[in-house]
Amino acid sequence: MKILAVDTATRSCSVALIDGDRLATEMTTTRKETHSRHLMGMIDTVFQTAGLTAADVDGFAVTRGPGSFTGLRIGISTVKGLALASVKPLVGISGLEALARQLPFSTHLICPILDARKGEVYAARYQGTGDEIHEVMTERAVSPIEAVSGIDRPCIFLGDGALLYRDLISEKTEVPAFFAPPGFHTLRASIVAFAAQPILERGDADSPTALTPRYLRKSDAELHLGRKPPIS
User: Fold this and answer.
1) Is the separation of the CB atoms in 22 and 1 below 8 Å?
2) What digits encode the pLDDT tens for the residues 81-108?
3) 103-179 in CATH: which number?
4) What's the CA gap between 48 and 25, in Å, rounded?
5) What class does CATH assign to 2-94+187-225?
6) What is the pLDDT of residues 182-209, one digit of tens each?
C-alpha cells in the first residue's frame, strides 16, 4: 500500500511516501516561515523523487494534533484537498502517538511531550510492547510539572517539549528519567504513514470532510471571544 503522509503540527514540516513496509522517500525541514510557504513544494518533491503522483497512492495520512493551531490547519486542509481530488481515503494520526511509535521496543514508559507555548505542553504516555505501543495516559494540555506528575517507573521522554523542559523534568521526576537521542524529538511523516497503514488496510479511514484538528485547548481567538467586555 502506497501512502503519502504529512506532518505540520510543530515548527518542523515533514512529508513522506511509503510503499508497503518500505520508505520510498521522506523530506523533513524546520524553518521560521509558515508551513504554507513550502508544504506543497515538499509534496511535489517527494512525489517527483518517488516517480509517482497523487493518483498513484492508495491513501493519505496527516497529523491531526495536538500542536500549532495554524500548522495543523495547513497540513490537514492540504491533505484533505489531495484526498478529495484523487478520491482516496485519509487517516488522521496523533502527533504524540507518532513520536512514541519511534520507540516501541522500549521497556520504559514512553512520554512524548510537545511544546504548547504559554508555559504548557501537550503530553501523553505510552507503553511499548516490542513491535507496538498502547496508550496508558490520554493526550492532554498541562503544565510541564503536571506532565510528569505521578510517573512511578523509569520513563523515556521525547519531543520538543521534553527538550525545552529537560532540566525541570529531570528535577521533578522521582524515578530514572531518560531522554531520547537526537533525531527522535522531531515528528517524522514516515512514522505517521506507517501508523496509518493498518487503519487504511482495515478500511477505517476518516471522512475527508469531517476530519478536523485536535487542539486540546482553545485558541487565542476563542479565548478572546469568551471574555466579557470590561465594565466602563
Assistant:
1) no
2) 999 999 999 999 999 999 999 999 999 9
3) 3.30.420.40
4) 10
5) alpha beta
6) 999 999 999 999 999 999 999 999 988 8
pTM: 0.92
Instruction: For CATH 3.30.420.40, list the domain ranges present in the chain.
Output: 2-94+187-225, 103-179
The CA-atom distances, in angstroms, between 75 and each of 68, 87, 163, 207 are: 10, 18, 24, 16
Question: Is 90 exceeded by the pLDDT of residue 219?
Answer: no
The residues with which 87 forms a beta bridge, in sequence order, are none
Residue 5's DSSP bridge partners are 16, 61
